């Protein structure tokens, strides 16, 4: 059975003390998980080390980073490598988030290089893809997401990508309060699974966890998570509240 994941992307929010309190509250509220459900917390880099202490020995909780650099090491002031993340106990790394693509000019080439680093350092990549509103309005969203996947993933063999997770995050839904409908999300998730099946194999595609992201909250998570190809969520705003995030976790 493929993994279900609820991942919280805190973005540039929470001071250390607040982050630790939030982690503790989420941990305390969420016990007795189904075995295949993983909860990933992706705080700012600076909180990772302290949060690792809080999350260790918690079998369903995993630590995520929001980004990594595309090179192994070197003179890249202010950057953090995948190897550094692995060295503090990080399990997952979000790669290609639309905010990185937009504000930091990340291209599919950067994203592919970052994936390479994640794989080389045994981190589970969460690859974000998704179209802008104008592309959807032009009815080019299926082609656009396919192109993003081809550009970033197709140079890797299936055996290198056993730990890959894809997050479908329509840009028009991120932080806007307007989520994709369960039907819109399901048809894109099915499309993504089909692309991976055509390129790799049916078993690869069947085992791939595909998350939905974009204004996911307690009120819409149950309907989204009921869709056959939606295996959980990448949650931004609602991951900053222990009550909301826990309610989303409990939507399964
Ligand atoms: C995100 O940034 O990955 C995200 C899904 O944000 P939000 O839930 O706030 O739309």
Structure description:
With 252 residues, the protein is α/β, with parallel strands linked by helices. It has a domain at 140-230: Aldolase class I (TIM Barrel), CATH 3.20.20.70. It is 40% helix and 16% strand. It has helices at 16-29, 48-55, 82-87, 98-103, 108-120, 133-137, 141-153, 182-199, 202-207, 221-225, 242-249; strands spanning 4-9, 37-42, 61-65, 92-95, 124-129, 165-168, 209-213, 232-235. It has an eight-stranded parallel β-barrel, surrounded by five helices. α3 (82-87) links the parallel β3 (61-65) and β4. α7 (141-153) packs across α8. The mean pLDDT is 97. The structure holds phosphoenolpyruvate. Residues 9, 169, 174-175, 213-216, 234-238 line the site of phosphoenolpyruvate.
List the helices and strands and how they pair.
Layout: E1 4-9, H1 16-29, E2 37-42, H2 48-55, E3 61-65, H3 82-87, E4 92-95, H4 98-103, H5 108-120, E5 124-129, H6 133-137, H7 141-153, E6 165-168, H8 182-199, H9 202-207, E7 209-213, H10 221-225, E8 232-235, H11 242-249
Parallel strand pairs: 1-2, 1-8, 2-3, 3-4, 4-5, 5-6, 6-7, 7-8
The chain binds phosphoenolpyruvate.
Q: What's the quick description here?
A:
By secondary structure, this protein is α/β, with parallel strands linked by helices. It has 11 helices and 8 strands. The protein has a domain at 140-230: TIM Barrel (Alpha-Beta Barrel), CATH 3.20.20.
Task: Report the radius of gyration as a whole number of Å.
Answer: 17 Å
The CATH class of the domain at 140-230, by name, is Alpha Beta
Helix content: 40-55%
Broad shape = globular
How many strands, which pairing sense, and closed or not: the largest β-sheet?
A: 8 strands, parallel, barrel
Strand content: 15-25%
Mean pLDDT, nearest integer? 97
* Number of helices, where a helix is a run of at least 4 consecutive DSSP H or I residues: 11
């Amino acid at each position: 059975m493929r993994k279900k994941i609820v991942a919280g992307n805190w973005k540039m929010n929470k001071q250390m003390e607040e982050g630790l309190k939030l982690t503790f509250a989420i941990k305390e509220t969420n016990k007795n998980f189904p075995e295949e459900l993983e909860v990933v917390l992706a705080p700012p880099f600076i909180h990772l080390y302290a949060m690792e202490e809080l999350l260790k020995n918690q079998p369903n909780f995993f630590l995520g980073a929001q980004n990594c650099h595309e090179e192994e090491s070197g003179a890249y002031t202010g950057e953090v490598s995948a190897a550094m993340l692995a060295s503090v106990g990080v399990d997952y790394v979000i790669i290609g988030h639309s905010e990185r693509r937009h504000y930091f000019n990340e291209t599919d080439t950067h994203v592919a290089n970052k994936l390479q680093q994640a794989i080389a350092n045994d981190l589970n990549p969460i690859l974000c893809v998704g179209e802008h509103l104008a592309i959807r309005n032009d009815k080019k969203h299926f082609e656009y997401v396919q192109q993003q996947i081809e550009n970033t993933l197709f140079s890797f063999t299936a055996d290198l990508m056993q730990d890959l997770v894809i997050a479908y995050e329509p840009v028009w839904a991120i932080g806007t309060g307007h989520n994709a409908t369960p039907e819109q999300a399901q048809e894109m998730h099915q499309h993504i699974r089909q692309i991976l099946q055509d390129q790799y194999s049916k078993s690869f595609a069947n085992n791939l966890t595909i998350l939905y992201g974009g204004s996911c909250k307690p009120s819409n998570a149950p309907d989204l998570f009921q869709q056959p190809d939606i295996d959980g969520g990448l949650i931004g705003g609602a991951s900053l509240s222990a009550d909301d995030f826990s309610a989303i976790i409990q939507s399964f």
